[in-house]
Amino acid sequence: MALFWLVLLSVQALVLSSHGHDAYNHLPEDYKKGVNLALAKLSTHSGVQHHFLFFRSITKSDIEPGFDVKYIYHHFLLKPTSCAKGTTDSSACHFRNDRPVIDCAVCYKTFGGNIEAEPKPYVHCVHKPSLTEEMKGLRIDQCNIIGYGSGAPTLLASRVD
């Protein structure tokens, strides 16, 4: 009976660990770029000691004002893995359940599928237990600043009678 439970737990762990890779692989390319931006910023932080992977999306939205321009907002979770920080091949990394997830919000402008340097992309990541309502409000304010000019292309379509 103990062997049955051990096999069952092993299979469940394998399914859960591959879920993160699948979740990332199913993201549209524009959203993957934002996740990569957050992971790159996270990896430069000296206090981070684990390798993180995309866990799941909370909110995704985009505005396409035209001319191959897109404004992206993505709120998602990153989960720590069993691998050390700096791991390049994460296929063997399994999610850890003994550490808190990191809650991230990113917003940025793309042109031709590439993230634009201006306006500067906004990336905010914090351990989930530390996220406050004030931080959530600041995220929205910052993303609204980036998307402020999104109505400009529609001005070209207006007519004066």
TrEMBL record:
Q: Where is the signal peptide?
A: 1-17
The record's subcellular location field reads: Secreted
Q: Name one GO biological process term.
A: chemotaxis
Keywords carried by this UniProt record: Chemotaxis, Differentiation, Disulfide bond, Inflammatory response, Secreted, Signal
Query: What is a single cellular component term in the Gene Ontology annotation?
Result: extracellular region
Q: What is its main location?
A: secreted
Molecular function as annotated in GO:
signaling receptor binding
InterPro entries reported for this sequence? Chemerin (IPR029562), Cystatin_sf (IPR046350)
Q: Which named protein is this?
A: Retinoic acid receptor responder protein 2
Q: Which organism is it from?
A: Neogobius melanostomus (round goby)
